[in-house]
Amino acid sequence: MPEPTSDVPDHSYPLRRRGRALWLLALPVLLYCLAPFVANRIEPRVFGIPFLICYLLVVTVSTGPIVGLVARFDPAYREGAAEFVPVDDDSRDPA
Fold it and tell me: Which residues have a Cβ under 8 Å from the Cβ of 58 and sit 6 or more positions away?
């Protein structure tokens, strides 16, 4: 029986090489955490929506493009490299 082939490369990228791109993922979290301090008011209304709700909608909609940018700049994602999981390197497993 032939072995199945995989399109995933055998090499993986360490987190320290991917870290700069992955730091962008903290931006939506930061924007959500700043909401009570930056946008905690009803007035002004934007298209009849309270400012806080409008702020949260903008942050939610911008999260998708931010994740897309991270995927674009992440070398491991671009090349389809295997995701590094420390359990995979367990030397105690004889199999």
Answer: none
Alpha-carbon span 94 to 80, nearest angstrom: 27
- Tell me 88's DSSP state: G
Reported as a single tens digit per residue, the pLDDT across 13-44 is 555 566 677 788 899 999 999 998 888 777 78
Residue 62 · residue 28 · CB < 8 Å: yes
Residue 71 lies in a domain: yes
The amino acid at 62: S
* This prediction's pTM: 0.62
Which residue range(s) make up the domain with 62?
28-82
C-alpha to C-alpha distances, 15 to 26, 36, 75, 86, nearest whole angstrom: 15, 32, 11, 11
In Å, how far are 2, 3, 7, 49, 53 from 19, measured between CA atoms? 38, 35, 24, 37, 32
- Number of separate domains in the chain: 1
